[in-house]
Automatic annotation (TrEMBL):
GO terms for molecular function: kinase activity. PANTHER family: PTS SYSTEM GLUCOSE-SPECIFIC EIIA COMPONENT (PTHR45008:SF1). Residues 21-127 form the PTS EIIA type-1 domain. Transmembrane segments: none annotated. It is found in: Cytoplasm. InterPro entries: Dup_hybrid_motif, PTS_EIIA_1_perm, PTS_EIIA_component. This is Protein-N(Pi)-phosphohistidine--sugar phosphotransferase. Gene3D superfamilies: Glucose Permease (Domain IIA). It comes from Rhodococcus wratislaviensis. Pfam families: PTS_EIIA_1. One of its GO terms (cellular component) is cytoplasm. Its EC number is 2.7.1.-.
Length: 154
């Protein structure tokens, strides 16, 4: 099984080790990368990074289970669960079947900046082994829908 994961939002790609959260930085949820969102575009539509079913949907995070298996978590900001949904607009529903590129959530990273929380967005393959995704894009700027990383089950 393998997944080709697209960038769900525009910004600069960071290594998970640079995420200010020990759970993501330590790859305890899974391997992946993070995106420091672009701040020059106002509110951003965060898109499905793979095709599949929305398994979990919270205002600040969602998980999509791919048709071949393998789930991808997109987490919008760090500790943003404490905002209780404020500043996030759901554009899809839990249980929806989505194609890569379909809008799931809208948020404005500059509003998150104003709360004192980090707007960095980890994108990880759930329960994958540490360092199991390609990190060729780290340090580069991506646009929504660009290839972000590939993951193949060991």
């Amino acid at each position: 099984m393998s997944l080709s994961v697209q960038a769900p939002l525009p910004g600069r790609v960071l290594a998970l080790a640079d995420v200010p959260d020990p759970v993501f930085a330590g790859q305890m949820v899974g391997s992946g990368v993070a995106i420091e969102p672009a701040r020059d575009r106002g509110a951003l539509d965060v898109l499905a990074p793979i095709s599949g079913k929305i398994l979990k949907l919270h205002p600040h995070a969602f998980v999509i289970l791919g048709s071949a298996g393998g789930g991808v978590l997109v987490h919008l900001g760090i500790d943003t669960v404490k905002l209780k949904g404020e500043g996030f607009t759901l554009l899809a529903a839990e249980g929806d079947e989505v194609d890569a590129g379909d809008p799931v959530v809208r948020f404005d990273p500059t509003e998150i900046d104003g709360t004192g929380y980090s707007a960095i967005c980890p994108i990880v393959v759930m329960d994958s082994t540490p360092d199991s995704v390609s990190t060729d894009t780290v340090g580069s700027d991506v646009s929504t829908g660009d290839a972000l990383f590939d993951w193949t089950a060991p």
